[in-house]
Amino acid sequence: IWTDVLAYVRKNVSDLEYTTWFAPVKPLGVQQGSLLLGVRNSFTKDWFRDHYLELLLAALRSLGAEQPQVEFQVLPAAQDALLLPNDPPPAPEPSAAAPRPKPAPSSPASHPGDNRKTLNPKYTFENFVVGPNNNLAHAAALAVAESPGKAYNPLFIYGDVGLGKTHLMHAVGHYLAERFPDKRIEYVSTETFTNELINAIRDDKTTQFRNRYRSVDLLLVDDIQFLAGKERTQEEFFHTFNALYESNKQIILSSDRPPKDIQTLEGRLRSRFEWGLITDIQSPEYETRVAILKMNAEQGRITIPQEVLELIARQVTSNIRELEGALMRVVAFASLNNVPFSRAVAAKALSNVFAPQEAKVEMTDVLRQVAAQYGTTPDLIRGSGRARDIVVPRQVAQYLIRELTGHSLPEIGQFFGRDHSTVMHAVSKITDQMGKDPELAATVTALRNRIQGKEEEEE
Ligand code: ADP
Ligand code: MG
Predict the structure, then answer these.
(1) What angle do CA 246, 251, 257 make, to 5 degrees?
(2) Contact predicate 300/17, CB 8 Å
(3) How far is the CA of 359 from the centre of ligand 1 (A)?
(4) Each residue of 281-310: pLDDT tens digit?
(5) pTM for this structure?
(6) Which residue in 31, 32, 27, 29 sits closest to 66, CA to CA?
(7) What is the ipTM of this complex?
(8) Which amino acid residue places its CA nearest to atom 9 of ligand 1?
(9) Pairing status of strand 185-189 against strand 69-74
(10) What are the boundaries of the region Domain IV, binds dsDNA (predicted)?
(11) For residue 157, what are the β-bridge partners?
(12) Collapsed DSSP state (helix, strand, coil) of residue 452
């Protein structure tokens, strides 16, 4: 029965809440309609009373209990060992906690083209925080969701792992499914597509396989880089693509790199991938990271002081999945040790996982911030323009990269397509100018703070 209760709970709370509060609970006495639950400390006990009693009662009712009861008992201290930062988290690792169990994939014969159940319910547009790192991809996805087959076809989204590609694809799927219940939506990873094709060939069912994929209104294919080197799958996908494209059906592809960088991809596929719109997602800036943490905490109905969220956002910089994992770790650590959220607690909870100084600054971060500051683009700054309004930002960018990243002069030179003496010149020029020009000095300081994710963003 506890398992059933948990299953009910899981559907009604966020993963963060589930992992933090429910996974560590020990069922002590479980009978029809009445539960005795062991919790780690009185803080947890109060928390359950205040937040989850109704939910647990509802779960019991849904299982047929007429007068359900729930009692909590604090487990003896021996079992309540202090969770040290280097202990594994109490519940599944963050990554394991992310996706809900998915229903078994429908067999190709059953409901062709309708596996919207494989869309993660949390991956919606509402739950997607938009920042400078992903706003183009977001806008493109929204445009495609609003007029599938007409806006951009295919839409190709690329970016590093854990930055929201899958989330955005699912969001389009949900959007369409909600407005047009009759539309057929197919989400598939490239791996699944490949495996299904192999099975279909083995079982002599390639016709069914084709019909299934060629009869959808929206085809979402995740991690298309895995097509590399798979000739038979590429061949099949080529025909699927053509069939859909010709009948104006929307195709969205994701990859960890742009089409031109996918090795051993047939030229004809590559060029098709480039027919529509190619858009990327970058690592989130500090402000976006804070906003994502805030949204997660709010959804988890957990009140965490802003400064704690900021600390987490400063330590985990590259990947949103890790960012969410770090938040979960902090929450679990605080609740298990019965301490309120504070910067110190967060730092401790994360100390073994993320080295505090690891907030590494990338050259592209600097470039992006400088471009934004001067109202230009990274490409122009790295380009060959010699107008003063591009030369200054270029020198500022080189100066800040030299100061904030560990890169050598030749490396920076290469990044800008120039040699190291140019960079050296830029660095001494800016150093010099800052002494004479307070406005420039203020701009550089503001940029430095922003890049390092310090408070006081605006000058
Ligand atoms: P990818 O497919 O690029 O590897 P995912 O789409 O799986 O990344 O995203 C990883 C995690 O980060 C997911 O839990 C997702 O919900 C979350 N996430 C990514 N981008 C955002 C965003 N902009 N706002 C909120 N959550 C996000
Ligand atoms: Mg993905």
Answers:
(1) 125
(2) yes
(3) 20
(4) 999 999 999 999 999 999 888 899 999 999
(5) 0.64
(6) 32
(7) 0.99
(8) 164
(9) unpaired
(10) 335-459
(11) 254, 279
(12) coil
